[in-house]
Write a structure and sequence with these properties.
single chain; 493 residues; mainly beta; eleven-stranded mixed β-sheet; 38 strands
Length: 493
């Protein structure tokens, strides 16, 4: 009897110990309206100060990964954190809104992991980004690396002008979770392109210069009518739906300097990194609604390794100044006013005069998954755009829609199309009517439905089912074309 009693006590003790290991946090923050309550089990080298619902944490640990648990609700709160070591922030049905500046502001030297555990739904919202000198203009702003994990849901909402969704100066990695990012504000000013020019001045009126502006009259008349936002998955009323009004006027068009592109100052981008954006798994939805507001931007590259990614923007859906890789994710990139996927290795400039050829530098590589890249605005914007750098297609299903810039630059070559690939020049697309690709026996290889009409698209098409030397037929309403892959890359007119 005694032995059984001791055994029971031991099991209960062990269970309590394991439970403590699994759930103990160094710091727990509970938001409650205009206040925040702190429970701090680790105090050495960690300073926590609270002002209303604004929590400041200064961690001087370098070898210890600090753990935080955040829960509760506040309509005017923030977490501002400076950490020397790694940090893991776990969200437990948190609802946090900031009326000015980032709800999550990480001045981090080491990686910050943000986890949304299974069964939780968490929402972070920013409503204003007017004080860009003292406050960071993003729902989540980080100085260092960010890692998003967990099998729960995280909603990122930016409604203020110039407010981004997620912004980091280093890499952003996303795994497992359901991540919804929506920005609906206008741009917060425009920063003109500048170039060292000494005392040289352009003749007055020759180009729009600093201080000039061109008023953008509103959304253009897209081919086939305005975009139908109802065709895309709703996000619980957290982004403008079809028929809603986006607040404010559309922003002014950019002021242009001599010899280069404009640069928006604090545009309302969805996910933006000065490093790389890496998506390994999960379900990611991004919506932006103003010019200059790309969906996913990674200055040093964007890598899609897995998961389901759904992006819809007025500007570029995916943008990088380096290589964009599609390795296995299912990606739908849809732009209503610019390129769907845009790799700017050449910084938007054409090669030297007389050299109308692609460079050997790879701008876009597709190895697997599905890549739907749709640009609705028309020429010269494209579904997949990399100027005169190279596209490599090694696998996966690819279907792009765009106005194109002729047959070059944004197509592969026989050398870089390692999987049979065709560009369909002049493909007529009818909204919601299926585009069917079949072989000579009538077997359907693929079917794609586009949510807008487009006359004479330059569409890039590739499939693992395509075989060299085989013949295929593409059919849409009022269009039918049969072609044979005599080469790995085939132009179909």
């Amino acid at each position: 009897m005694l032995n059984k009693t001791l055994k029971s006590i031991f099991i209960l003790f062990l269970g309590a110990m394991m439970s403590g290991i699994g759930h103990a946090q160094d710091i727990t923050v509970t938001y409650n309206g205009s206040k925040a309550k702190i429970k701090q089990s680790l105090k050495d080298s960690v300073t926590v100060t609270v002002n209303g619902a604004t929590v400041n944490i200064d961690s001087r640990y370098e070898g210890h990964k600090l753990t935080l648990l955040l829960k509760g609700q506040s309509n005017d709160g923030q977490l501002i954190m400076k950490n020397q070591g790694k940090v893991k922030v776990t969200l437990s049905n948190l609802s946090l809104t900031s009326q000015e500046g980032a709800p999550f502001h990480f001045k981090n030297k080491k990686k910050v992991e943000i986890k949304a555990p299974k069964g939780t739904e968490n929402t972070l919202t920013i409503t204003a980004c007017n004080d860009t000198v003292n406050h960071k203009a993003a729902t989540i702003w980080a100085k260092g690396k960010l890692l998003f994990t967990g099998k729960g849901k995280l909603n990122i909402v930016a409604t203020g002008d110039g407010c981004r969704g997620i912004k980091s100066k280093k890499d952003i990695t996303i795994e497992e979770l359901t991540l919804n990012v929506t920005t609906s504000g206008n741009n917060l000013g425009i920063k003109p392109f500048t170039m060292p020019m000494g005392d040289f001045k352009m003749p007055e009126g020759a180009f729009p210069m600093q201080g000039d502006s061109i008023k953008f009259p509103g959304p253009p008349n897209f081919p086939g009518g305005q975009p139908d936002f109802s065709k895309f998955p709703p996000m619980g009323g957290m982004h403008p739906e079809s028929g809603d009004t986006i607040k404010g006027d559309f922003p002014e068009m950019p002021t242009m300097g001599f010899g280069g592109k404009h640069k928006y100052y604090s545009s309302a981008k969805g996910i933006a990194s000065k490093g790389k954006v890496i998506i390994n798994s999960g379900d990611i939805t991004v919506r932006t609604f103003t010019a200059g507001a790309e969906g996913i931007e990674g200055k040093e590259g964007v890598i899609f390794n897995g998961g389901n990614v759904d992006i819809m923007c007025m500007d570029d859906a995916v943008n990088a100044n380096a290589c964009i890789e599609f390795n296995g994710a299912n990606v739908m990139a849809y732009s209503t006013g610019n390129d769907a996927v845009d790799a700017n290795l050449n910084n938007g400039f054409f090669p030297p005069f007389g050299e109308n050829k692609q460079s050997d530098e790879v701008a876009i590589v597709i190895r697997g998954g599905k890549v739907f890249a749709w640009s609705q605005v028309g020429s010269p914007e494209e579904g997949i755009d990399c100027d005169f750098a190279s596209i490599v297609i090694e696998g996966g299903t690819v279907f792009s829609v765009g106005g194109g810039m002729g047959e070059l630059p944004s197509v592969p070559t026989n050398k870089t199309a390692k999987q049979p690939t065709a560009v369909l020049v002049g493909l007529n697309i009818v909204k919601d009517e299926p585009i069917i690709i079949c072989d000579t026996s009538g077997k359907v290889i693929d079917t794609v439905t586009i949510p807008f009409s487009f006359n004479r698209s330059a569409s890039l098409v590739s499939s693992p089912a395509f075989k060299s030397g085989a013949t295929y037929t593409v059919k849409t309403q009022g269009y039918e074309k049969t072609f044979t892959f005599t080469e790995n890359f085939t132009i179909v007119r």
